Amino acid sequence: MLIDSTRITDRDRDHWDALERYDRMLAADPALDRKAESAVAEVRAFLDAGEAYVSVSWGKDSVVVAHLAALAELTVRVVWVRSVLFETPECDAVRDAFLDAHPQVRYEEIAVEMRNPKRGEPGYDTRHADPHADHQDVLRETLTGRWISGLRGEESRMRRMSIAHRGLSTKNTCRPIGRWDATHVFAYLWREKLPVHPVYAMTAGGHYDRRWLRVHPLGSAPPARSAVHGRDMDSWEDAYYGDVLAAARQARAHLWR
């Protein structure tokens, strides 16, 4: 269920409709049933070992994991760490649609002020992907305890290595869809009629691969040419969310004076 947005162009909608037909076909594959059953079992075993929560961004992966976790335990705790001013505004609609369909989950929202300059602000550090740089890791600073995430090995070599070495679950982390591809995620979203953030339809008519578009705090996109098969994510943000970024920069201008 694609959440609507005025940011989606006619070309975007045509491209999305074509991809959704592909999702519908994959949704009928019995292999998807087996993947979902295995993921629910992974979550259930993790929850049986102790209290835990689902960390969500309201992107495609975390919505799927929140749904799988709710199948494992109806009253599972779902937590969104929200970056003030920099979240895509449609996240609220995705959240509301999910919670309307899953009223039993225990939902918590934590608002976090961004401490460091974001892209377009004075002093922005382009080395935000460098673990030795002075950047703010919002999730690491905010979340504690045991958590369930939508992390998938397809997204990076390091994640694939971690899952291969440590498995889907460790003492404190559970990655039930760690071995899923994005095609499985979109097929599952279609099959279960789960809310889909419109960011995945914002492909400039297919120029961007929806598999690598992210729901993330704006102004902290990966460096150009990093994650989208050579596409410039800074330009993508400016094209689709330039107004949100401009408003956030204006609201924070006093911090850099």
UniProtKB/TrEMBL annotation:
<keyword id="KW-0560">Oxidoreductase</keyword>
<dbReference type="InterPro" id="IPR014729">
    <property type="entry name" value="Rossmann-like_a/b/a_fold"/>
</dbReference>
<dbReference type="GO" id="GO:0004604">
    <property type="term" value="F:phosphoadenylyl-sulfate reductase (thioredoxin) activity"/>
</dbReference>
<protein>
    <submittedName>
        <fullName>Phosphoadenosine phosphosulfate reductase</fullName>
        <ecNumber>1.8.4.8</ecNumber>
    </submittedName>
</protein>
<dbReference type="InterPro" id="IPR002500">
    <property type="entry name" value="PAPS_reduct_dom"/>
</dbReference>
<dbReference type="Pfam" id="PF01507">
    <property type="entry name" value="PAPS_reduct"/>
</dbReference>
<feature type="domain" description="Phosphoadenosine phosphosulphate reductase">
    <location>
        <begin position="53"/>
        <end position="201"/>
    </location>
</feature>
